[in-house]
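User: Fold both of these, please.

Assistant: Here is the first one.
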Amino acid sequence: MKFLTRFHRHLPWFNLPAVALVALLQRTPVLRVAAVAESIIGASSAGQVLRSVFTAAASLGAMHSLAGATVLSASTVTPLRVTAGTAMAPVAMTVTGAQTQPLSFTVSGAIPPGLSLSGLTGTGGRINASSLTLSGTPTTAGTYTINVRAWEKINQTGDSSSNFPYTVTVAAAANVLPSFFLQPVSQTAVVGNNVTFNANAAGTPLPTFQWRKDGVAISGATALSLTLTNVQLGQAGTYSVVATNAAGTATSDSANLTVNPPATAAPSFTTQPAPQTVSPGDTVVFNSTAPTATAYRWQRNGVDLAAATSANLVLKSVAATDVGSYRVLATNSAGTVTSSAALLTLNAAAATELGRLINLSILTTAGPGPKVLTVGAVVGPLNFTGALPLVIRAVGPTLNTAFGLGGVLADPVLTINRSGVAAPVAANDNWGGGAPLRTAFAAVGAFDLPAASLDSAALSSASPGGYTVQVTGQANASGLVIAEIYDASTARTAASPRLINLSTLTEIDAGATLAVGFVLRGATARTVLVRGVGPSLGTIFGLGGVMADPKLELFNNDTGAKITENDNWGGDAQLMDAAASVGAFALADVGTKDAVLLVTLAPGAYSARVSGVGPSAGTAIVEVYELP
């Protein structure tokens, strides 16, 4: 109080600039004094002047709430050093040390090309935010300074900070030779059609492209895609593209263009869609093949189905609204032909009677090294509980004594492993003629084995997960052998595990065929994805000596009739979607020569047969997946 009394007593003699100086240099004390003193200042002229100074001082305190000790705070200090072509770790920044949090920013200077500061690029701009994030992939080497100014309120109003510089140094990336991740795919066209080849390659710096036909550069063809309009017979040939950058050049795979003369007759179906009975919620596939067709159009009950323009029609999660009669119209330049009608019906069978895989069998030559026969099985669905009883066999000698086959594996040995577990869960050499095994053979419908035979067999209780069975010969012997996996379950319920994937990996000789048999049982059909994979094993998994061009054929073992076949899957989007839905590994690219079939099969016995096209030989995997 004594201070205030003296302040009031001597106030008329204050020199105004001095008062203003106090207000400027000691804002907080003056404002505290002003809050009390203003009420006792008289109406003198000096009091009126001081009142204006108090107002100015109070305003000054608000205006500079972002001034003084404010600093730019960034999660990475300046200068930031990054490399062109490499995505940078995001940098968060704001202004700290202020009395209030900023609500907007002005950004000026130069933001490096390829980067953004909370959406601002180039020379910046304005943004309402309390913080900023610098992120992206820089593209151009150089040193860039970004100026950041914070504002107290939105829309760059109120108090503001200084301009804070933030420097980013972008180093030039090391040169990297081009590498193709999208290869052109061979195509067949009719005279007058349009054809497009696509390719793409990575590299540093980004490569340029030059398309070639039969090894000769095509003038002006320097884009990622090559489109040929109104193709003629003379444009048939081999097409490729060369990618070039400062590190060198790379050439894509070759893609063959086959140009056929205009059709002289309308298409003819070699595969007609077949009637199907499935359970509600299942996937169903109607297949058709018309070799000379250039377009397909599916109908239900005579009405066109939207976007159903492939040779095969896939219906997911079928319901009562999908029931009906299906047919496909195949068209070429000579006309249109309509397939036979196929009826789709639903059977709400009990869960114990749903169509399912119950057996896989492989007849092939097994031996040491790459000839070791590996059979895989997945029990699922993986979130089910309980265990699935399996009967697993490796039969060699009995193939000779009971079926008269020569060159058999005299003494096969089988080993069963669970995925992720080092030690085998079971193994057998010579089954021994035990009663439990013989009873199990009869229960699953497997042919009997002589008690003294050197064939191998085992019973295994498999909880959900992946398993492999390896078949070898004693003393590194080789010979013909059949490997079998049977579902031995009884008293099934809706929660019972089942076989959802069966596969085999082995080496196939030139001119030979690997036969993989599988059996479906139940009251409804089941859609399966069948694959014969060779090239992708080398590209994805680094496996050597793979079969370069496998061909896949599907037969009905009950009738002996061929159902369908595939040589080169062609990148069909429906096949990619089906593989993803069952967890199958993606094939290397759309141009691989792997073979794939997607088909709905009634309960029965079937075989997938894989052989090499021409002289093609090597390791291949054959897979059968149950689709939900």
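And the second sequence with its predicted structure:
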Amino acid sequence: MGNPRFTLIAALVFIMVLIWLAWQEDYGPGARQAAAPSERPVQFTDGLDPSAADSELPSLSGSSSLQQMSPIGTANEEPAAVRHNHEIQVVTDLLDVRIDTRGGEISAVSLRAYPIELDKPDEPFPLLVKEGRHYYVAQSGLLSRQNAPNHLADFEADKTEYRMQESSDSLRVPLHWQDNGIKVTKTLVFNRNRHVIDVEYDIINQSSQPWQANQYRQIVRTPPAERSGMDVMMYTFNGAAYYSEEDKFEKIDLDDIEDDPLSRDVKGGWVGMVQHYFLSAWIPNQDELNNFYTRTLKGNRYAIGMISPEILVSPGQSGRFTSRFYVGPKEQQVLEELASGLDLSVDYSWLTIIAKPIFWLMTFIHDNIVENWGWSIILLTLAIKLALFKLSEYGYRSMANMRRVQPKLMSLKERFGDDKQRMQRGMMELYKKEKINPMSGCFPILLQIPVFIALYWVLLESVELRHAPFVLWIDDLSARDPYFVLPIIMGATMFFQQKLNPAPMDEMQQTIMKVLPIVFTIFFLFFPSGLVLYWVVNNVLSIAQQWFITRRIERSTAKSR
């Protein structure tokens, strides 16, 4: 291992290949072809039969313990009157929401604090949408042997538009349903400065018979659109997910739902749909036992949801169901406060134990020192470099010593020519004489790779960097450099750094080393500028550290002669 730097770069290339292969597996040609609608007739138990072709109701048949305590739900009877569906508009300080009076479905949510594009500051990002092929909605309802309002039922609304006033901290949107003495009010509660929608079902039994029901909540969507542009270079998960104390954070590819549907009883936890930067999730009461499920629906749609235990409402009595729906950015501090494990939707994978402290430090620097995410990345890189200084110094010392004996190695090569065995023996004798371990520079640098990868995921997953400006032409750290200045600087620093290292003895390695700066520059052309900024700063600091150590060893060698 005559050149530790080559080992590091080879490892980094290998990592980038793994990232590319992961993307190919999930987003490559043919991997995300739209699944054909199921040819099988949809099966319902105990009369469950949706009144609309594009929607299905969950059943309780997949739950073990909940099945024992709950009856199988039945569908709403179709009312004799013609349906009159209306959309209710709700505007808060953070959300622009559309609610369908049919079922009280949350059919659209736009995030007012997050523009869809940097050059469209007045156009909020549409997270939930119900348009043509792009179908992504949140549904909830009640299942009962008797008639009950599911997400296909018609509700009555007091108004068609609600706006949160400056003097108010909350906004309540009530929807009303009644049948045969059963009155249900479904209320969606919006709170200022929050991306959480509280959903309440208040039931009054004015009939002469007991009434019982289960609450269900589900998120239904079509597969995400094919990726293009710079998104092709950045693999991030886009699909269903849930959390339980037993399984912790579990991701579910939409393509896997039909072959391996989820059905399990979970206390607390949450279910949701996860994508880059944003999340939608149903959060039950954390002491409540629910059956978590996934299912494939008609129209190439997929659902993940939960069903609660039943409640029994006696004649003349009332009952209540509550739940919460989060729809917004993956801000870790906010998510941690809402539910256990919800912050894990910011997915650092197996490097979470390293990535979380890195994110904390980056946020601390931003909030307390510079208030600019670009400068936070620079100071974070400097802090990591200082923390790993001794490891880096050990590796750079080894490379400096290898550089010092490079003329002697070249002399051995000229002396022994193509006799590889004699060449290897001569090199080992030289290393022993000069007290050099050629492997000593490899391991300290390789130990840093998990830190580099963890930082990569922190910068890739952090919604805080979305549309965050730096300086001059860098107006969005989550987008590529529009003029490719940073990638070119990165390639130049990589080339200069190679000049500080001993050249590989093998001609093939020499050729690879010459090409690598060009290859990496091409890769980084499409990476977010925040990531490229980190690599530029890291390379500059590495060059300074390596140059200082090399000069010091060369001066020490010159004095000893």
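The mean pLDDT is 80.
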